[in-house]
Amino acid sequence: PVFAGMNGSAIENFSCVIYNIFLMNCTWQAGRDAPADTQYFLYWQKSRDEEEMECKLYVKDENCRNMGCIFENVTVGIEKAYFLVNGSSKDSLIQFYDEYIDLYKIEKLMPPSNITVKCDEIKNDCIIQWQRPQISHSNQDMCFKYEINVNYK
Q1: How many CB atoms lie within 10 A of CB 104?
Q2: Beta strands, E only, 36-138
Q3: What is the pLDDT of residues 19-51, one digit of tens each?
Q4: Separation between Cα atoms, residue 108 and residue 18, nearest integer Å
Q5: Cα–Cα distance between 100 and 67 in angstroms, integer?
Q6: For domain 12-105, which CATH number applies: 3.40.50.300, 2.60.40.10, 3.40.190.10, 3.40.640.10?
Q7: What are the domain boundaries of the chain?
Q8: Three-state DSSP state, 45
Q9: Which candidate, 103, 97, 109, places its Cα nearest to that of 28?
Q10: Do residues 43 and 53 make contact, with C-beta atoms less than 8 angstroms apart?
């Protein structure tokens, strides 16, 4: 397919991360050869059934160019989400960038909560308990692996 737009004008280094359960942050860099006045716009579609939405909360650089987006109330479905970043400039056509992403793969997990430690000096043992982290994509118990580092002071 022939992509309209100047070579090197599409964004680069696009990446997204989901954090604090419901927030998603996407960032990118301007295309190497994009004109200085290029402005970028991010659209995403959570699944084929849902409508495409534009970012409502852009993160801007010092030149007021959109370089990222923060999404609120994100929930993770089972389908890949579709992301599209296009651009506009007075001088030339800007190439678009698009990508499909499995949202569960980009979720940064919260730490476990309600951690308690009960030690018994007579038996010389400790019981450590916690609740599994909340995750965006499911409320059922998933298979979590935990690592415990114990430092004796």
Answers
A1: 15
A2: 39-45, 53-54, 58-60, 66-71, 81-88, 97-101, 113-120, 125-131
A3: 998 999 999 999 999 999 999 999 999 888 889
A4: 6
A5: 19
A6: 2.60.40.10
A7: 12-105
A8: strand
A9: 97
A10: yes
* Positive/negative CA dihedral, 30, 35, 37, 42: negative
Helix, strand and coil in the chain, % to nearest 5: 5, 40, 55
pTM, rounded to two decimals: 0.81
109: which residues sit within 8 A by CB, 6+ positions away? 133, 135
Among 66, 81, 56, residue whose Cα is nearest residue 29? 66
